[in-house]
Amino acid sequence: MKIRNGLSLILFLSLTIYAIGFVADASQQKQQSKPKATEKPCDGQDMSQMNKRGDEQMGFSQDKATHHFFLATDGGSIEVQANDAKDTATRDKIRMHLGHIAKMFAEGNFNAPMLIHDQTPPGVPVMKLLKAEIKYTFEETDRGGRVRISSNNPEAVAAIYEFLRFQIKEHQTGDPLEVRIKS
């Protein structure tokens, strides 16, 4: 009888420890998948260096343009516009850059963001792997352009979200970190 009670107690404790570990692991994974709104964005010097690299890589002054990054149910978008509606030179350079970016990304080439940010942005490795399942569409806007990034593959969409959230934080755009646009 004592052995049976002892085995029951050991079994109960083992299951309890397993359940606590399972809940803790699930909680940790859930926290890691959430956007970290408290992450520290670039400081002034880092931002200045990133903008300098951006000027070189994008072909237009970052001071003359505004970036936005939006998450959609099937991916999201990169949007850049000239700050001055009359600045057609910057508008045209934005359009040229974004058209080029759409083609490069479709080929799995993410050298530009790696050079601008001085690191491989999160999501890029998976976006490269799943490049055949991601569509990049360039569209002109009044003051610049937009690259729509979309996929039907949930893993690709998750990678796109990582990439765009990183951009939002790095460029300090204040854009929402959650999906707000339906496809």
Description:
This protein is α+β, with helices and mostly antiparallel strands. The chain is built from 6 helices and 4 strands; from the N terminus they run ααββαααββα. The protein has helices at 2-33, 44-58, 88-106, 111-117, 124-129, 154-171, and strands spanning 65-72, 75-82, 134-141, 144-151. It has a 4-stranded antiparallel beta sheet, covered by helices on one side. A hairpin with a 2-residue loop joins β3 (134-141) and β4 (144-151). The longest helix has 32 residues, at 2-33. The relative contact order is 0.16.
Helix fraction, binned, reads 40-55%
Radius of gyration: 22 Å
What is the helix/strand order? HHEEHHHEEH
The biggest sheet amounts to: 4 strands, antiparallel
The end-to-end distance, rounded to whole angstroms, is 64 Å
* Widest beta sheet: strand line-up: 1-2-4-3
Mean pLDDT: 79
Shape descriptor: globular
Report the sheet-strand fraction: 15-25%
Number of strands: 4
Instruction: Give me the secondary-structure category.
Output: alpha+beta
Uncertain segments are: 15-41
Q: Give the oligomeric state of the chains in this entry, treating copies of one chain as homo and distinct chains as hetero.
A: single chain
Per DSSP, the total helix count is: 6
